[in-house]
Amino acid sequence: MQNPSASPIILASSSPYRRGLLDRFLDEYETISPDVDESNPDKLEPAELATHLARKKAEAVAATAPRALIIGADQLAVLEDRVLGKPGTHAKAVEQLMAASGKTVRFLTAVCLLDPVSRARYEHTDVTSVRFRQFDRRLAEAYARLDEPYDCAGSFKLEGAGFILFESVSADDPTALIGLPMIWVADRLLQLGYLLP
Question: Is the pTM of this model over 0.85?
Answer without folding.
Answer: yes
